[in-house]
Amino acid sequence: MISEILQTLPQVLVDGLTLGAIYAVIALGYTMVYGILELINFAHGEIFMTGAFVGVAVLFFMSGAGWLAVMPAILALLIVLVVTSLVTGVLGMGIERVAYRPLRKAPKLITLISAIGVSFLLQDIVRFITEWKRGNYIVTGPQLFDSKIGLDFSSIWSHFNDAILKTSSVILLVSAILMMIGLDFFVNKSKWGMAMRSVAQDRDTAALMGINVNKVISLTFFIGSALGGATGVLFAMQYGTINPYIGFILGLKAFTAAVLGGIGNIRGAMFGGLLLGVLEMFASANLQKLTGGVFTAEYKDVFAFGILIIVLIFKPEGLFGKAVTEKV
Amino acid sequence: MSILELKDIQTYYGGIHALKGISLKVEKGEIVTLIGSNGAGKSTALKTICGQVQPKSGSVLFNGKNISSQPAHVTAKTGIAHVPEGRRIFPRLTVKENLEMGAFAVKDKKAIQDRMEKVFHYFPRVKERLSQKGGTMSGGEQQMLAIGRALMSKPDLLLLDEPSMGLAPVIVEQIFDIITELNKEGMTILLVEQNAFQALQVAHRGYVIQTGEIVMSGQGSDLITNEQVREAYLA
Ligand SMILES: Nc1ncnc2c1ncn2[C@@H]1O[C@H](COP(=O)(O)OP(=O)(O)OP(=O)(O)O)[C@@H](O)[C@H]1O
Ligand SMILES: [Mg+2]
C-alpha cells in the first residue's frame, strides 16, 4: 500500500498544489478583510465566481473579435486577468461601500447576514446575465492553453510514477505565486501596506496619523477582490466549465484555509491554502486504499476537514497564530 | 489670535453628556494643562479637538479656523498631533514603522529622516530599538515612542493625554523634562493630566475640569497654591 501511495505522490503534489494555489489566493481576500474589519466577507467566494464569468466573457468577446487567433495566448491571458481584476476589485469596493460600511457600528453578526445576502445576489445576477446572453448558466470558455507536460519523477526515484502537468497548471501556479509574493511585498514593504497594517491594529490611532481609514478599507477590498477575481479566471482556465455556484464551496474551503493558517495572517492564508489543496488531493487519491475501500474518493473533504478540526483543537489560533507576521 | 480656542463645546456619547459647555484658550508657545479626576471629560476634550468625536454644538478654532466638524485624519494633517491616552503604539509595527506612521502625510523622504534624527535627539532609547515590535517595548519606552511619533508630523500644537500614566517616578520626571524642553524650543502644548502637581509645575496656565465643566482656571503657579485645588487634586 505504501508503495502505491508513493507511486501517485508526484501527481498528488502537482494537482494538490494547483488546487491549493487557488485556495490560497482566495484565502488572502478573506484574511485581509477579516484582519482589518473582523468581518467574514462571505461574499468573497462569489467575487471569485464573478471573476471566472467576467474572464470567460472577456475571452468570448476577444475570440468573437478574432483577437485570440492573432495574439499569443499569454498576452490574451494577461489582458483577461487585468480587466477581470479591475472589474472585481471595483465590485468588491462597491460591496463594502453599499452593504458593509453603513453597518460598521452594528454587531458583526448583522454584517455577516448582509454579506450572505450579497452572496445570493451575486449568484443570481451572474446566473441571470449568463442565461440571458448564452441560453445556459453553465458555460465553458475558450481554452487558451491545452497542452500537457510530462514530469519525469521516476528518474528521480524509482518508486515514483511520472506526473502529468497541464500547461494551464504551470501558468496558474506561476500567476498565483506572483500574486502572493506581490501582495506580501506590498503589505510589508510599501507605505500603503503599512497603512493597512496600522488600520488593522488600531483604527482610531491610524486616523490620528492622518490616515483616511475608509480609503484604506476600500483599498483592502479592492486588492482582495481583484486577487479573488483573477483567481476565478485561472480557475476557469484550469477546470474548463463554470457555473454560478462554484464560489460557494470553493469560498468555504478558502475560508477554511485562512482559518487553518490563522485568520488575519497573510502568510498563514497562503500556507493554509496550499496545505488544504494537497490534503484534499491526497485524500482523493488514497482514501480508498487507506480505508480498504470503506471510504471512496468522494469522502476527501471529510479527510481534509477532519485534519482541520484536529489542528484547530490543538491550535485554535491556526497554524501561524498571530505571532509570526503582521496581521492585516 | 489664540492658536486654539474652544467655545462652549457640548459633547455627547449617546445619552451621556460628557462636555457641558467647555471654553478654553491656548496661546502660541504656551503649555496649558487640563486637570481633573477620572471621568471628568479630559480625554473627551482632546478627542473633540482632534476630531475623533464631533461636538453637538460649540466651536473649535485652530488658528482662527473652525475645525469642529473636521474628521480626525484631516485635522492630523493640518498641524495638530494627538498623543492618545494609553499611548496606543501600533503593537505589531516596528518602532521605526511607528515613527514613519507619524509622518504618513509627509512625502519628502529627507524631511522624514531629519525629523527622525530630532526624535532620537530627545529619546536616544528609541533609536536603540528601531527594529523591535512596538508592543514589546516597556511602558516608558512606549510613551517616548508615542511622543516621538507625534513629533514626526511636526505639529504646531501637541495634545498630550496623561503621559505620566502608569510610569515609575523617574520616568515621569524624564517625560516632564522633555515636555519642558520641547516647549522651550517653541512647541505649543495642551497637557491633560491627573498628576496635577507635576502638570501645574511645568504649565504656564491651567484649567480644572469637573464632570464636564471648567470649574477653575489660572496661572499654573496660582492653581498649585490654591486651597480648593490642593484639597481636591494634590492631597
Ligand atoms: N466611548 C464612550 N462611550 C460612552 N461614554 C463615554 C465614552 N468615552 C467616555 N465616556 C464617558 O464620558 C465621560 C468623560 O470621559 P473621559 O474619558 O473624557 O474622562 P477623563 O477625564 O479622560 O477620565 P480619565 O482620567 O479616567 O481618563 C465619562 O463619564 C465616561 O464614562
Ligand atoms: Mg482620559
Automatic annotation (TrEMBL), chain A:
Gene Ontology cellular-component terms listed:
plasma membrane
Specify whether Ion transport is a keyword of the entry: no
Is Metal-binding a UniProt keyword of this protein?
Answer: no
Question: Where does the chain cross the membrane?
Answer: 20-40, 47-68, 74-95, 107-126, 163-187, 216-239, 302-320
Query: Its Gene Ontology biological processes?
Result: D-alanine transmembrane transport; L-alanine transport; L-isoleucine import across plasma membrane
User: What is its subcellular localisation?
Assistant: Cell membrane
Keywords on this record?
Answer: Amino-acid transport, Cell inner membrane, Cell membrane, Membrane, Transmembrane, Transmembrane helix, Transport
Q: Tell me how this protein sits in the membrane.
A: Multi-pass membrane protein
Output the Gene Ontology terms for molecular function: L-isoleucine transmembrane transporter activity; L-leucine transmembrane transporter activity; L-phenylalanine transmembrane transporter activity; L-valine transmembrane transporter activity
Primary localisation category: membrane
State the family it belongs to: Belongs to the binding-protein-dependent transport system permease family. LivHM subfamily.
Q: What is this protein called?
A: Branched-chain amino acid ABC transporter permease
Instruction: Give the organism the record lists.
Output: Fictibacillus aquaticus
From TrEMBL, chain B:
Residues forming the ABC transporter domain are 4-234
Q: Name the keywords, alphabetized.
A: Amino-acid transport, ATP-binding, Nucleotide-binding, Transport
**Gene Ontology terms, MF aspect:** ATP binding; ATP hydrolysis activity; branched-chain amino acid transmembrane transporter activity
The family database entries (InterPro entries) matched by this protein are listed as: AAA+_ATPase, ABC_branched_ATPase_LivF/BraG, ABC_transporter-like_ATP-bd, ABC_transporter-like_CS, BCAA_Transport_ATP-bd_LivF, P-loop_NTPase
| UniProt GO BP | L-amino acid transport
Q: Does the keyword Isomerase apply?
A: no
Query: Do you know which Pfam families this protein is assigned to?
Result: ABC_tran (PF00005)
Task: Enumerate the SUPFAM superfamilies for this protein.
Answer: P-loop containing nucleoside triphosphate hydrolases
The entry's family comment says: Belongs to the ABC transporter superfamily.
Protein name, entry field: ABC transporter ATP-binding protein
